[in-house]
# Entry
Amino acid sequence: MSEICPQMADKKSIQELNDIASQVRRDIVRMVHAVQSGHPGGSLGCTEFMVALYFEIMNYHPRPFNMSGEGEDVFILSNGHISPVFYSVMARAGIFEVSELATFRKINSRLQGHPATHEKLEGVRIASGSLGQGLSVATGIALSKKINGDTGFVYCLMGDGELQEGQNWEAIMFAAHNGVDNLIATVDFNGQQIDGSTKEIMGFEKIKDKFEAFGWITLDMQGNDIGNVIQTIRRAQELSGKGKPVMINMKTEMGYGVDFMMGSHEWHGIAPNNDQLASALGQLTETLGDY
Amino acid sequence: MVKIEILDQKDTRSGFGAGLLELGRRNPKVVGLCADLTGSLKMDAFKNEFPERFFQVGIAEANMIGLAAGLATGGQIPFTGTFANFSTGRVYDQIRQSVAYSGKNVKICASHAGLTLGEDGATHQILEDIGMMKMLPGMVVINPCDYNQTKAATIAIAEHVGPVYLRFGRPKWPVFTKPDQEFIIGKAWHINEGSDVSIFCTGHMVWKAIEAGEILANLGINADIINIHTIKPLDTEAVLRSVSKTGCVVTAEEHQMNGGLGDSISQVLALNHPAPLEMVAVKDSFGESGTPNELLVKYGLDTVNIVDAVQKVISRK
# Structure
């Protein structure tokens, strides 16, 4: 087996991580533009988080991919529609070839519209897209690690709108009741969903209070500040192993990094046209070479 | 007609419980999950002997399926247990996305299937589960006929890598298959050789088909009786071999006509060997409260209904 995360050996500065994030954002808008479909808004908002996880936080073997994640930290994406950021970060981390990003959402691709294991894309451990299922799966993997005596962490990312799905609350209850303390769940609190702001659609105030009432440890995080992301997840790791799961309330801005996409639900699931792509790319430095 | 002895009267769910306990002893990867029905599913013995491998999930079936998908990802072999209704209809999308589409090695074990659940009534008497599960790509669907076959099937599915739906029931029912039998997924059991009609039967209806076979023998009709315990993958070869000989078919199952065993058999016939077919199944209806036998009689799933169907189908040859 390859050594744990070569990225970790080569410790990156905040500037270097932000440079990766800039390239990931270019990948996101180019992928979505190329097929005129996909979800750029949430992908752009979660870029720092995903870069921090795969280039700084997680211990994992980029290759060969091991489905069970034995001896590794594992990430589960519950809000599968932000597949562009998931795919770009995994490719940039060396899990599969960067050139494959060009196949996103096309026929015969392993990069399905929503992540899937079916086409055997390395790095994906569960299909997601139908919302509200990822936290249960992540909790199951965390239980598995406990049974197997594996000290790796399980990370899960969920959308805020996704918390409207009742299954999440079943999992939230279960994880606390069973002391699943190797689980760090992050909620992308961008305040937007397809039909409008989460506040309008089905507002849930005091999200941290809700998790705390269920028995979780909670933290706040500025999701578009990569330094703060790293610091907060490190803190979450320190708080783990003490009988409670940890939830991170991650404040992000949907569409972050592309001015005309920022702060609105309108870019949840639409693609930029040619002019908009040019404008977006003009705001994002090419740091690692486009695919 | 070959003589089939009744060895005992036992519920098929107890066969599951016994099989799971044996599996727990044999295979440390096997874990159990249950949604507040541990006693009903007969999972107590497993729970008591392997508390570290048993997860009580409360009344939260969707989460149970997701947890099982996660445990399977980590290398465990999870067996989920609840009633058939809550094992399928309630969690269809969780099974579809997190288990079937994701190719997870989860065993969905479902008790109290069909009308023979009895007095609890139609909310709990699922008659659509075989249809829902067999439509999922890659899902194996098994409906054993008695205690011994259920126990053997429970043990066998742990060896199969991939999702399985195992369906069994609540009432005490004749035990007539061998203890410690070998169970081969997808391999039909030829109960009786006959040349006048093929009877394909599954679950509790296998015993009814055997009773019908005895009545038919006295009428001079020799039925080829085949137990289709695995509805998917279907033993197409056994079906076609039998119908080539008999030229007509009756199916018997404790399920809706739409989507069940009869539906699978009719597809095989239409595509390969068109032949007259009668289905003994629930005809587009919900069930109701009553004793198991009262319900089987009222909904046309009794021995006499199989006999009638055989006479009708033979007249159509």
Summary: The longest strand of chain A covers residues 183-189.
